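During the no-cost extension, the postdoctoral fellow (Dr. R.K.) reprocessed legacy sequence entries with the updated structure-token encoder. One reprocessed record is reproduced below for audit purposes.
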Amino acid sequence: MAVLSQQMGGMSIGQPPLQSGVHSPPLASQSQTHRTRRVYPTADPAGPSSQPGASGYPSAPNAQTPGYPGMQAGGYPAPAGAPISGPQTFVPGGQVPAPIPSAGSPYARSPGGASMAAGAGGVSATGMPRQPMAQAGQYEPQKPRIDPNHMPSPNAVHAHDQETHASQPYSTALKTNVPLACTKFTAIDEGNSNPRSVRLTMYNIPHTEELLKASHLPLGMVVQPLADLDPAEEPVKLIDFGEEGPIRCLRCKTYINPHMSFINGGKSFVCNMCSHENPVADDYFCNLDMVGRRLDRDVRPELSKGTVEFVATKDFITREPAPTSFVFAIDVTWGAVQSGLVAQAAAAIKDAIYGGMGLPPGTKVGIITFDRSAHFYSLLPSLEQAQMMVVPDIQDVFVPINDGFVVDPYESQSVIEGLLDAMPSMFAKNRTAEPVLGAVVQATHDALRSRGGKLFVFQSALPTFGPGSLKQRDDPKLHNTDKERTLFEPQDSFYHDWAVKLVEEGICCSVYMFPSTYVDAATLSQLSTVTGGELHMYPRFDGSRDGKRFAADLRADAQRTYGGSGVLRIRTSDGLRVEEHYGNMYMRNHVDVELAGITSDSAIGAVFQYDGKLDEKQDVYFQIALLYTTSDGQRRIRVHNLAIPCTTLIGNMFRHSEVDTSMNLISKMAIAEACTAPLKGVREKLIDRCVQILTAYRRNCASGSSPGQLILPEQYKLSPLYTLALLKSPAIRGGADVP
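Re-encoded structure tokens follow.
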């Protein structure tokens, strides 16, 4: 932070140089018995003048009187009602000089000092000749500083972008100038995917790696495959190609998209990714028009829309798809009861199931409670009330219910609501203090093995009993040291190994923590990190303070769009490849991203690397394909396509960059690095990256500007502020010290 402050401290944002006609006035001689009135040189009222002012520089016409707003020439206040025109910029050379002490003041200079100050040369007391002075009593100008009024404002930027896209919809055919992430807009899919689903860090791709390195800009994307669309936007089209499945390139397996070209009268098509020529099946043949486009292009969504969804064939199904099952596992130990967690969780689950929009279509529900033992409930609709079965042998845990563990929430609504309403009183006198989280994970894995689903865990304390028991390992002596990163690594591999097993069965896990003392979040978070879930933290939970926020978080998590058993792959044009992926996911190889669960808010970051030189005369293509199972048990393939211009100019890269996506990707990279490097080094890299980007822009795009000005690229002018906000976040900052 010190480096960024040092480099920004001596610069002004767009501040003009010292105007001619605004000069530093000479100090009056102190040998006088009274203070001489200070007179400031101004422009000639009769018209422009080229005569030099008091400081030797010519006076500029209409020069603004230096000093404070509301003052006129000579230092007198402006008459009442006189307008003050123009922005009030305080130029260091035009500020009012410090007052001269009176003759009788103890701070006044000696007469000898006054005579020397008044003289322009002569001989000093030591007999050495004095150096002539440019002006008697001239003071040293203050160091320029940043004017707060010229600082970029996020509110102003967001308001301007909202105003720009409020009146007319955004056409994805533009390929550039996408709305900001926080802007409410309506998009028209005309061959490129909606920015809600896919965003790039820049919308002019450099044609060489050297050009990218010169800019220091990140090259990557953030993908949100199942993002919810605006109600005014056209929904994603579902296409069924039958048993043969969607048309794909024979070489690189790219799905048919609007950017593929048809040749030979429509009998062949050329892949936009690898340029391979593929034959067209007879049942898919169509004639071409005069410009080489298929005549049925506008009626085939796969040839005209950037985002489509295909029905998956049997080749993409490893096990029979089933509707999603949600299992809620509640910690009912003594600490959870005392903090109000049990009552709040029961009420929040009831609201998430039956309140608002309700759960995704086809979802089934199951409930588990646990302390030193695991409690399973039969929720069959034929029962008057739920039946609880206790499994005390948590070393070899199993689910004792064959039918009724997961049920339709509406068919068994009375049973489920009765159980949730009675749950706080059922465990009000529970004195057990050790939760067995590991056994619950194992039991859920066995119960949902053949169907997949999602596990919601509500945990209040460190699991110290049974499988996966952990020890308290927090050491304050390691904080803010190079060894602090060891606290961010898992304590053991138990939860990571079981998370991998959950991924294999298509089971996602979201963890809600309510700790009053140390709870090893780095280890327990493996359940959500690997399976594509989320981790929610409520330290020192208080129902009256945190209850509403917890209920809102759970409702949003349970009711949003959900898909299971997902596999995502990103394809790019020849010359680019995906170097690294970031997010909550699991990868068996370097290309396939496995997502046990994926929601409308799930986002994956990807960084690209060059394999060769791109053709600046052609667009650069990207395709993101997600294979997943919907909440009602249908296997689908959602495909997003992008075509982005290629450039040889570094100015175009900055002009068409996207700071929201860039900072999102940079933050994901910083969080991933924090697990293997000291936080101090991570913070320094964030600062260096910000400085390098701004320096590269100044060096390559604004080299002719004044050295005293801080030149910010229009698209990246908020990057210093966003970087500072990231440095202040609890995940990056060190201890209680806030930059």
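DSSP finds 17 helices and 24 strands in the chain. The longest strand covers residues 562-572. The remaining legacy entries will be reprocessed before the final report is submitted.
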